[in-house]
Amino acid sequence: MLQGYDERKDWAMRNLAFRRRRPISKLLLVQLCALVIFFCAACPGVLAAPKIRVERVTHNFGQVEEGIEVSTNFIIHNDGDRPLQIYETKSTCGCTLASLKKRVVSAGATEALKVVMDTSMKQGLVTKEITVKSNDPKRPVLRLFVSADVRDPHAKLGGNVQAKIFQGRCAECHSVRGNGKFGEELFVADCAMCHGLMGDGAVGPNLVRLDYEAKGMAEEVRKIIANGSPNHRSMPGFSKRLGGPLSDLQIASIVKHLKDLSLLDKRTVR
Ligand code: HEC
Ligand code: HEC
User: Rounded to two decimals, what is the model's pTM?
Assistant: First the structure.
């Protein structure tokens, strides 16, 4: 079977084949090396990054009184190997403030994000969201939630004991922008944040489903806007007579706008 088999010849042949292939593999080797060098040079830039982590994304304050401030700390970790830059910590309602001592968290370090919630005028279950924007490439926006079950010792009293929303810092968002305005503009400035731009509801109920043609309805709505809701503290009385920001004419202009919105809603939806 192995007749004529010449080991030396076989070796020479293989050696020849190897030599012939060699120039190609050399080129390949050079290419491979170049690739490895390129990646290794790029690696640190690609892989090194800040990495944000929080120990929990929600905090429940449990049952709390109305009209107080409650606070908690969310511990932010930087698990990455580049400094973590925190650009923004924001909540929609100014009643919840989030603050940091440092906006840059070095690699491996932690920083406490303090969240303070003002329970003034709130009632029942309330949840607020805080968005944290950072330079973590994988998680540029992180959402945290605080919630509380607000008990209101004055709930049964009704009236405008809640004028706080029209004072100081609260007023900047809740009434100052409506000053001197009427109708739609006034609704957008003072009401939309709680009832939605089209009046179709947000934290407050839908106002366009009401039948403003029904007897006494427009008057009922006017009264609630002027005096506030006897059932829910989040709906303040807007009348100047109660320390609110709106004149009777302004309130009437809003009722008219709501009526228009509800007609529009009936025409388009139904
Ligand atoms: C930066 C603007 C801003 C400031 C300042 C602000 N609010 Fe608000 N508030 C909002 C917006 C927007 C909403 C609706 C969205 C939401 O509830 O997060 C809202 C909603 C509310 C509500 C509705 C009920 C609920 O679920 O929270 C109450 C009550 C309230 N604010 C009270 C206050 C009080 C009291 C202050 C002052 C301590 C205040 N707000 C300051 C913007 C603001
Ligand atoms: C801070 C949040 C907030 C703001 C600002 C606010 N509302 Fe309200 N509103 C509520 C809540 C909450 C209720 C529900 C009250 C209840 O359950 O009795 C409500 C109820 C009402 C109601 C009664 C609706 C019903 O079905 O019983 C009317 C009408 C109303 N709001 C109109 C307005 C108008 C107009 C404005 C602007 C001038 C306004 N609200 C601003 C939170 C708000």
Answer: 0.68
